[in-house]
Amino acid sequence: MITAAQTQTLLAAIILVAALATLVWLALALIARIAPRASLAMACANAAAALSLTLHALRGVLPDAVSYWPGDVLAVASFALLGAAAPAITTRQLVWKPGAAVVVVAALALLALPYDGDLRWQARLVNGAGAGLTLAAGIAAWRSLGGPANGRRTPAPLALPLFLIALLMAARSLETVVHPGTMPDMRLPTEFNLVFLWTALVLTLLQNATLAFLVLMRLILRIERLLERDPLTDTLNRRAFDQSLEQAHAWLKRGRGYALVMIDMDRFKQLNDSLGHAAGDAALRQMVRELQPCLREVDRFGRLGGEEFCVLLPDTDLAGAALVAERMRALVDAAPLRWLEQDWPLSASFGIAEGEREDESGDMVLARADAALYRAKNQGRNVVQA
User: Fold this and answer.
1) Is there a domain that residue 233 lies in?
2) Number of domains in the chain
3) At residue 157, what are phi and psi to the nearest 5 degrees?
4) Do residue 125 and residue 163 come from a single domain?
């Protein structure tokens, strides 16, 4: 036999979990500064849920004006905040306006409904809005999780808890239609309430744990990025590029070729001496920006040191690398550096080489590309040489 103590205990457990989750997300947002906007939104979502459920649990104890309409609006707000936060953990864009609009519309609609004993329409509205908001969030999270995240792919099934929450809220809304005589009160000792509250407790834990895992993954990726990236140009540093080259050379032994394009900015020392190191840094960053449109997602672009860069082109032969290098050369040549109201012409020299099965390591290919770059410099600069 189901008792009121069982449902009330489960309701209290959900409130406790949401309250603890609020503190954890606040710590992530304000102390650790990990995904601060998304973490703060998750803290607010859990806080709104905890407060809404507390007001629901205290109906009949607190005045109706405090426990009914405010509690329902807070419930919708918690779903809206969850819907904004979940995709933002990976996309870093907090889209809150659609959810805010739903909250405003729901609040006005609830205000127009009488809280006179029959609360089925209020329950349908709150749970229906919650189902719609979490379903939209699940779709957005699924798409963002399925796409590249800092160079990797995050498993899209991690968005599954959002879909399950949407299904749970839809089921609660439907229950008021299938059983119109049942009061939509989670405290009542009914079989549906017992199943609903157990499921809600598990999903509250699962959703927070899943999103916390994604935040942790984001932190790990951020650390890895700092270890792999050149801080000035945001290209791969020498260590990370060498690792990519080593992997590409291993693929070469299995029949997948690659080519290298060595790049060296012309007269860089003269630019530094004339305009200063800040201008030299700006010139390097501009050259990197100009070269980006020439790169595919599979290509690897690294800074080897100073003004010298290298591009790794998988599945590319010498002729293909020459076409890419010539396009790069033209782009750099066509974009002078604007510094202190003056234009400073920029150009770069390019050396290309193709990996061959006889090469014992990628360093041998890199040495040939470097030799080709040296020949390009000797030919007067601003040329491509193989």
Assistant:
1) no
2) 2
3) -60, -10
4) yes
pLDDT by residue (tens digit) across 146-161?
A: 654 444 455 666 788 9
pLDDT digits (tens, 9 = 90+) for 127-150: 999 999 999 988 888 877 665 444
Please identify, among 182, 198, 228, the residue that sits at the C-terminal boundary of a domain. 228
pTM: 0.69
- How far is it, in rounded angstroms, from Cα 55 to Cα 32? 31
Rounded CA-CA distance 201/214 in Å is: 20
Instruction: Say which residues have a Cβ less than 8 Å from residue 186's Cβ, sequence separation at least 6.
Output: 7, 11, 53, 56, 193, 196, 197
Whether residue 309 contacts residue 301, with contact meaning beta carbons closer than 8 Å, is answered with yes
pLDDT per residue over 291-336, tens digit each?
A: 999 999 999 999 999 999 999 999 999 999 999 999 999 999 999 9
Q: Any alpha helices (H) in the chain, and if so which ranges? A: 4-26, 36-57, 64-67, 69-91, 97-112, 120-146, 160-178, 191-228, 238-252, 268-275, 277-291, 318-333, 362-378
Place of tokens 């800092």: 150
